[in-house]
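ESCALATION

Customer reports they have been waiting on this structure for their group meeting. Please prioritize. Original submission:
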Amino acid sequence: MTARVSTRQTHTFVRERKDAFAHYITNRRAQVGLATFRYPGMAYAKSPSVALSSPTIGAPQPAWHGIDAMQADAFRALLQGVAITCGLTHLAFCALFFWADVSALAYVSVASMLSFACVFQLARRERVAEAWTVTVLSVLAHAVLAVAVIGWDTGFHYYILLMIPAAVISSIRPVVLKAGTVLGLMLTYLSLDIALRHRAPANVLLDFVVEGLHYFNVIGIMVMLISFAGYYYYLLEKTAAALREMSQTDALTQLKNRRAITEAIRREESRMRRGQHPLSFVLCDLDHFKAVNESAGHEAGNTVLKAVSRTLESCMRDVDFVARWGGEEFLAVLPDTNEDGARLVAERIRRKIEEQLIEANGAKPIRITMTLGVATIAPGEDAEQAIVRADEALYEGKAGGRNRVVSAAAA
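Update from on-call: job pushed to the front of the queue and completed.
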């Protein structure tokens, strides 16, 4: 008995060291956008202490450049919204200028509508830099011409101010270019103010028309600010939700990762305490996975992990959870399931894995088996202790010949 405990501790120590190294390698490779890396030695190693507070292992974390890409997508979508809104606004201006007999500005509004149609198409084709450049130039040209022709009091200069926060939240790179754009817009507005605010317009409109244009532009700016801020907030929330999903998903298998399943376990354990419902765990480990990597290559190993993950998902109910626990190890959480029910689920998983033929790299189909340890939370026990017992049962199954389901000893 003493020798067995010593062996267990040795396995635990080895796994902790290898998992720490693998976690470092996968994160570093994810940061430079390379393929998923699997440390070959992970295949034989058992799980570490299986503590619920353990860091996520075996799955690359979202790279920071992924956040930048999402920000760029959000800004691209915002530019499309801007193009539609400004195009409709210029349609109204076109009608208004023809009515006020300022045909020069009416034709400028027509040109602006065409430019914003171009902005929409450029943004749609992911040519964000060109779309942003056309937007800035179109707004500046229309604002400067309108103020010069019909006067400062009409309020067209406000549209230049609207571009400043848009430039700040833009995805322009490098930052020096963004800062230069913001500074250029500020200087343009100040220059326009100095040169034209006290100057008589080239085309004098009736007072009520000037007042109408002024309040139309003021209200329009307010509506645009609210719309753009609300839309951008929606896009940021959507991006944040996607990032949360990425942080809780194993990049290779698309199962929940260790962090996500840990949160689910805590929720289910709390619910179990309130309602006295059973909660069971099935810890699964692929047999001789290192041999697959060595004989067929790591790409084949990744294909096996993906296929096994799909099989595991097919064996779960809607209320169950399954996650990649680390390396070639998986954990299923079965709410409202006693030990007998959990053992039936585990046996179904074992049988499906054993019968599965996995095509990888066009080579000979791969067969693989799985050993599973089952445990149900006992009175006075917490989830972490139950998972430790499941891990010990899994270890017994490995020692007993693999490809079997072993129920944990009573707590």
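Sent to customer with the following note: Strands lie at 279-286, 321-326, 329-335, 370-376, 405-407.
Escalation resolved.
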